Amino acid sequence: MFHRGPYGFAIFPDVESGHNALLDLLSNVYANYSIDRMIVKFAPPKENPTKKYAKLLHEKTGIYDDRPIKKFTAEQFEKLWKAIQQMEGYKAGKIVEVFRVTGVQPIDKHTYKFCLNEGDWISESQCISLAGQGKVELEVCVSDLGNKFLRSPANSIFQTRLEDLKQTP
Questions:
Q1: Are residue 69 and residue 108 in the same domain, yes or no?
Q2: Distance between CA atoms of 83 and 102, rounded to whole angstroms?
Q3: Is 155 part of any domain?
Q4: Which residues, in sequence order, are CB contacts of 102 under 8 Å at separation 6+?
Q5: Domains in the chain: how many in total?
Q6: Contact 25, 33 (CB under 8 A)
Q7: Are residues 8 and 79 both part of a single domain?
Q8: Are residues 158 and 138 in contact, defined by beta-carbon separation less than 8 angstroms?
Q9: Is 96 inside a domain boundary?
Q10: pTM, whole model, 2 decimals?
Q11: Three state DSSP letters for the chain
Q12: Which pLDDT tens digits describe the chain residue by residue (169 residues)?
């Protein structure tokens, strides 16, 4: 089981779970992909130095052709996941405090208040501050004019609640 951190990355309860998830992803989702094809999906160019990433994976595995990952030897596969962990900067972390947003209520047309942990209501600015610190599972977005607002990850329960609020007359 994992949850998404404030920047959309998966956060696992321990290193072993994260490692196993990576192995499963490579073995199942990307099994029929070459390194070049896999890396474009795994680390899209708009968010990553994809060419540099692919170069590292080719160098570490010694594979420069279009061979699918499922055809890698055990040694090549190990070199692949180790190189990915190196590039991604895998590390064990410590979650200090995470709040769950359990409710949201409109104050006026453009302002909301947020309920944390079943009963503690906070202002939108307080929620933005906590999201910026990665303490709530919301993204802080900044408009072209510099205004800050909150956005939940796609397909989250909170996103559904916000959509329901917008449709309420």
A1: no
A2: 39
A3: yes
A4: 115, 116, 117, 118
A5: 2
A6: no
A7: yes
A8: yes
A9: no
A10: 0.55
A11: CCEECCCCCEECCCHHHHHHHHHHHHHHHCCCCCHHHHHHHHCCCCCCCHHHHHHHHHHHHCCCCCCCHHHCCHHHHHHHHHHHHHHHCCCCCCCCCCECEEEEEEEECCEEEEEECCCEEEEHHHHHHHHHCCCECCEEEECCCCCEEEECCCCCHHHHHHHHHHHCC
A12: 344 444 455 666 677 888 888 999 999 999 999 999 999 998 888 878 889 999 999 999 999 999 999 999 999 999 999 999 888 877 666 555 566 677 778 888 777 888 876 677 888 888 878 777 767 766 666 666 666 766 655 555 555 555 555 455 5
Q: Which two tokens stand for residue 70?
A: 């499922």
Q: What does the radius of gyration of the chain's CA atoms come to, in whole angstroms?
A: 20
Q: Are 36 and 63 in contact (CB under 8 A)?
A: no
The amino acid at residue 112 is: Y
Q: Could you list the residue range(s) of the whole structural domain that residue 60 is in?
A: 3-88
Single-letter residue type at 141: C
What amino acid occupies position 157? Answer: I
